Structures are given as C-alpha cells and as structure tokens.
From TrEMBL:
The keyword Signal applies. Residues 1-18 form the signal peptide. SUPFAM superfamilies: Spermadhesin, CUB domain. Residues 127-245 form the CUB domain. InterPro entries: CUB_dom, CUB_metazoa, Sperma_CUB_dom_sf. Keywords: Disulfide bond, Signal. This is CUB domain-containing protein. The keyword Signal applies.
Length: 422
C-alpha cells in the first residue's frame, strides 16, 4: 500500500489518493474537483504555506528518475510514500494516509506526515468495539476522564492482514483496582486477553508495561481484550496501544514470550510491581525474553534500587517481607526452596562467586532477597543460558506465610563474549 500524490505547480496544489495510480488522464478528474471546489483543496492548505523550497527538496526525494525528463512533469509531479506509521501531533502513533481515507476508516487526523503530503490518522476506540486497524488505542469509557463504573469492556482485534502473527499491547495508561490483600488474587478488576495463547489475567497498576499475544497463523478468531470491573468505585484509566506485527519481521517476539525486551540493558518488572503500593499478583505463569544482541553471550540481573523502603523490596516473592527475608533457591520443598512462587533464571550464579562453587548454579529464585545463593545480601546474578529467558510463576495463595510481597524489579545488562563467556 502507498499514498500517491499529484503535485501541481511546485506543490501549490496537492491531490493525494491512497494506493491509487495517478495518470496523465487523471488530470481532468483533478481539474473537475478543483472546479467544484473539491474536498481536497481546503485540506491541503498547509502545502501552500510550505512554499517553494520544501517542494523542491521533495522533488529530488520522490521523483522517479524515469520521469525526470518529461516536460509534463515539470508542472505535474507524482510523489509516493508508504502508508507507514507516523507520530501524531498529540504524540500518539498513527498511520499516514489521506484525509478522506482516514475519515472513511473511522480514524481522526492529527497532524501531518510524509513531509506534509499525508495526514497522521489516529485510531482510538473504547468498549464493545472491534478493530482491524494497526496501532489502535483501546481506552476506557470516558477517556481521558477516569471510569468509576463496573461492568465489562471488550475490544475485538481482527487481523489487519492474514500475515499478522502477533499483537503487541503497550500499556500507555493502565490503572485498575489491584488484587485483594490476603492472597493477591485479581478478584475485583481484571484485564483478560483471550483468543490467543493463554495469558494470565492481571490487575492493578501496569503503566509502561507490555504484552505480546500470539495471534496464530492465518485468519482465525479475533483476539479479545477485556476489562472486567467490579466492586468498589475506583478511578480506572486505561489506554492500550494495539500493534499488529507481521510474521516475517525482525521485531517479532520469540515464541512463548509474553514480554520481549530488546537492547543491551533494560528493566524488567512483574505486573503491578511498585515498592510501596504494589502487590505481587497470584496465578501468574509466563515467559520474559530478552533478545540476544550481537556479540553478547551472557546476561546479568540486579535488583532495582528501592529508594523508598528501608530494606529494598525490589525482589520480594516469598515470606513476610515486612521483615528482612533471605533469598531462597531451588525447587525442593524445604523452607528455603521455591515450591510455590518463583522466578526461574536458567543456571543462575552470583557474579563474583569464588571458585569452585562457580560451577554450581540454580534455577528457581524466590524469597525476599535477590541472590542465587542462600543469603541476606542481594547480589548480581549471571546466566549464560541462551536464548535469554526468565519464567515467572506464582500460585494462588499468599497468606499466612507470605505477606506484603511486591514481586520483582530487575535491571539487566547483557555481557560481552569475553571473560570465559561463550
Ligand atoms: C490497492 O492495492 C491493493 C493491493 O496491492 C490492490 O489489490 C488494489 O487493487 C489497489 N487499489 C487501487 C485502487 O489501486
Ligand atoms: C503496524 O505498525 C507497526 C509500527 O508502525 C509496523 O511495524 C507494523 O509492520 C504494522 N503492521 C502491519 C500489519 O502493517
Ligand atoms: C510511536 O510513538 C513513539 C513515541 O512517540 C515513538 O518513539 C515510536 O517510534 C513511534 N512508532 C512509530 C512506528 O512511529
Ligand atoms: C532501617 O533499618 C535499620 C536496620 O534494620 C534500622 O536500624 C533503622 O532503624 C531502620 N530505619 C527506619 C527508618 O526504619
Ligand atoms: Ca504465592
């Protein structure tokens, strides 16, 4: 798909059509629309302000070389550009297209794109709707005002193209009621994703987080995003960007990754993590993947700084974390094993651990301190198992043994293929 524009008289007038070839004989049609004061003209007056110089630049950029000699085209120039993503004036992501196309597809124009030839079309929708537009924002009823009511609010996401394999959800805003205080189960509000691979329901505060949903191959049932709200009044606010990811792209997440991070360093947080107000969610079971960057052979994890609490709560999965709790490791059923809730870090070992213990490594880590050894002292933890992946699991119970756990926040840094890392 693409947008083609006919530029007349060095850009003083522009006529754009989505995906439609403009021939010389289209000119009469253009002339007609001009004569009748066609809908295009008023919408493109920014072209008039931009004037001569910009248009000259555009000619160099877009003018197909084969047409350069044509005397006809010295007056009439055809420019094309892809229907790609664009940034709207509001900062939202949109799709570049003509004003007419944007209106007919149910979007709203928000700023210019493609050097002023296209409009950035933003798609925003709320409860009980469906979308097949890429980069649609799913917002709460009444957005940007919060929604205090209860009920169910659903968006069906239909593939924009059969060749879409994944749906990425970006939680630009995500604030619904958190889990109950005893067992941390989301029983008041819930965000549920269905129709794709199994995804745990979440609740609470998740702004800045993301999820990948496997949409399957071919055209199958839509993926449904549902907010169920119940119980006490709560100022619920959400705005989720829904991006459709084609199968054969480099930015597609690996199979089985609910979360997928790229880059040499970054930060991983469990859902509803917050050192003070967060509570680790029960009934979680998912993979977190970090793309192996070129020439990196290992990955090191360190608990985030907790600047609020006296004792860091950046990794509190098990025990009563109102008191200091040591790290726990391994999959046995002993007091210092991780039988119920854990973060699985494949063959994890503390950084700087003295030989020969270096040869030993553990997989599950839990407790109230982040370390691959039993310890009250937090440590950086290294894993060289590839691909880089973590699994997070919680059961449906906290009380009475587990109290006030927040979940985890870890910073990761990939380690170069030196120092015996292969
Ligand atoms: C737009 O592009 C599609 C796919 O490339 C094509 O099937 C369709 O005929 C085109 N429409 C027009 C009006 O050119
Ligand atoms: C959706 O938009 C994103 C970002 O612009 C882009 O990478 C992706 O290829 C688009 N998906 C489809 C199906 O066009
Ligand atoms: C979407 O918007 C963000 C923030 O404005 C920007 O960083 C990102 O590149 C945009 N994506 C596309 C495909 O335009
Ligand atoms: C912080 O912890 C230390 C050691 O456990 C304790 O001595 C101190 O009183 C605590 N401070 C606060 C403000 O709780
Ligand atoms: Ca638990």
């Amino acid at each position: 798909m693409g947008l083609k524009c006919l530029v007349i008289l060095f850009g003083l007038l522009k006529f754009c059509e989505l995906n439609e070839t403009i021939h010389r004989d289209t000119l009469s049609r253009v002339a007609n629309s001009k004569a009748t004061g066609g809908i295009y003209l008023t919408k493109w007056n920014r072209g008039l302000e931009r004037g001569h110089q910009d248009t000259k630049k555009l000619e160099h950029r877009f003018w197909p070389p084969v047409q350069r000699d044509s005397r006809f085209l010295s007056l009439f120039t055809v420019v094309t550009f892809p229907n790609g993503g664009c940034a709207g004036a509001s900062g939202d992501n949109g799709t570049c297209m003509t004003a007419r196309e944007c209106t007919s597809r149910g979007g709203s124009a928000n700023g210019y794109c493609a050097n002023g030839f296209g409009l950035c079309c933003i798609f925003m929708t709320s409860c009980d709707s469906s979308t097949s537009e890429n980069s649609t924002y799913f917002v709460n009823s009444g957005y940007p005002a919060p929604y205090e009511g209860t009920g169910s609010c659903e968006l069906s996401v239909i593939k924009a193209h059969p060749d879409v394999c994944q749906i990425r959800l970006d939680f630009d805003r995500f604030s619904i009621a958190g889990p109950e205080q005893v067992n941390h189960v989301c029983n008041q509000d819930q965000f549920i994703v269905s129709g794709g691979n199994p995804i745990p329901a979440i609740c609470g505060s998740n702004q800045g987080s993301h999820m990948y949903v496997d949409a399957g191959i071919g055209t199958i049932n839509p993926v449904k995003l549902t907010f169920v709200t119940s119980g006490n009044p709560f100022e619920r606010l959400w705005k989720i960007k829904v991006t459709q990811i084609p199968c054969n792209t480099i930015y597609r997440a690996d199979e089985g990754c609910l979360q997928y991070y790229t880059g040499v360093s970054g930060q991983l947080r469990s859902f509803n993590y917050h050192p003070v107000t967060g509570l680790q969610l029960s009934n979680q079971d998912y993979g977190i993947c970090i793309r192996m960057e070129r020439n990196f052979c290992g990955i090191q994890y360190t608990a985030c700084a907790d600047t609020v609490n006296n004792r860091s709560r950046a990794f509190t999965l098990t025990g009563n974390s109102n008191n200091p709790v040591n790290s726990m490791i391994g999959s046995g059923s002993g007091a210092n094993n991780c039988a119920n809730d854990w973060l699985l870090v494949p063959c994890a070992a503390n950084v700087g651990r003295l030989q020969p213990a270096q040869a030993l490594c553990t997989d599950r880590i839990c407790g109230g301190t982040f370390s691959a050894d039993l310890s009250m002292q937090s440590s950086s933890v290294l894993s060289t198992v590839k691909p880089f992946r973590l699994w997070f699991h919680t059961d449906n119970t906290e009380a009475p043994a587990d109290i006030g756990n927040r979940g985890f926040c870890l910073n990761y840094i990939q380690q170069p293929c030196t120092n015996n890392l292969i």
